[in-house]
Write a structure and sequence with these properties.
The protein is mainly α and 240 residues long. 69% of the residues lie in helices and 3% in strands. Helix 5 packs antiparallel against helix 11, helix 7 packs antiparallel against helix 8 and helix 7 runs antiparallel to helix 10.
Length: 240
């Protein structure tokens, strides 16, 4: 249950309770504003305030001209909040982005044993094609966020924990959005990251969890060095 501050808090919770009681799922139409007022015995202004709060959390979705529906319950609010925090922390040694990267590493490492069981002995042309695309783009000194995202999404797609998959995607989105937003240059040794993607896949197909973990750490080394350099540059600019 989402807890919010303010006078509309009780109404927000009651509408959430109604969604649960009715067994509504993402995409289902919500009761009309009038129906909510009558069923919950509350004012129209209270319903509207609560619906605005729920919409901001992606619990409901307002489709103008069509009505209000149960939202996709995505982690978009988390992404937006952490991106704003990254902007606020721009002058604080890129702390927010560093923390997001640490969380990405932790997630990637935490599923090593699960991924090994899933991919051991398999052949994965889709994942190989994403690595090949990254290698081609990196060789031409071009960024490859789409290919990178496609690789990680495909890699995690077979994990049974849907929340974990969503978290991984959310942290990846924050990471890749914050890097250009904070004017962080692409690492000179970006091919190391490409090779690490291949090593991650090779290790999983071979059933070697330790090799996968080593490849994950290697995957983030170029970014770590780039963040260190950006932090030193910021410190130097401040002192100057």
């Amino acid at each position: 249950m989402v807890r919010t501050k303010g006078a509309g808090n009780g109404t927000v919770e009651r509408i959430q309770d109604l969604i649960l009681a009715e067994g509504l799922v993402p995409g289902d139409p919500m009761p009309t504003e009038t129906a909510l007022c009558e069923r919950l015995e509350i004012s129209r202004s209270s319903v509207r305030e609560a619906m605005r709060t729920l919409a901001s959390l992606d619990i409901v979705e307002v489709r103008h001209g069509h009505g209000t529906f149960v939202g996709q319950l995505s982690l978009a609010p988390l992404v937006d909040g952490l991106l704003f925090r990254a902007r606020l922390d721009d002058g604080n040694d890129l702390r927010a982005l560093r923390e997001v990267v640490e969380l990405r590493i932790a997630l990637d490492l935490s599923v090593a044993d699960q991924l090994v069981e899933i991919y051991r002995g398999s052949v994965n042309p889709e994942l190989e094609s994403h690595v090949a695309e990254m290698r081609d783009l990196a060789g031409r000194r071009q960024p490859f966020p789409e290919a990178d995202a496609a690789f990680h999404n495909a890699l995690f797609s077979r994990l049974p924990n849907s929340l974990l998959r969503q978290l991984a995607q959310a942290f990846w989105e924050i990471h890749t959005t914050a890097v250009p937003m904070l004017n962080i240059a692409q690492a000179d040794d970006i091919l190391v990251t490409v090779d690490a993607h291949q090593a991650m896949l090779t290790a999983l197909e071979a059933g070697d969890a330790d090799a996968y973990r080593e490849a994950v750490v290697e995957h983030y080394r170029p970014l770590g060095r780039t963040l260190d350099a950006a932090g030193r540059a910021e410190t130097g600019a401040v002192r100057a």
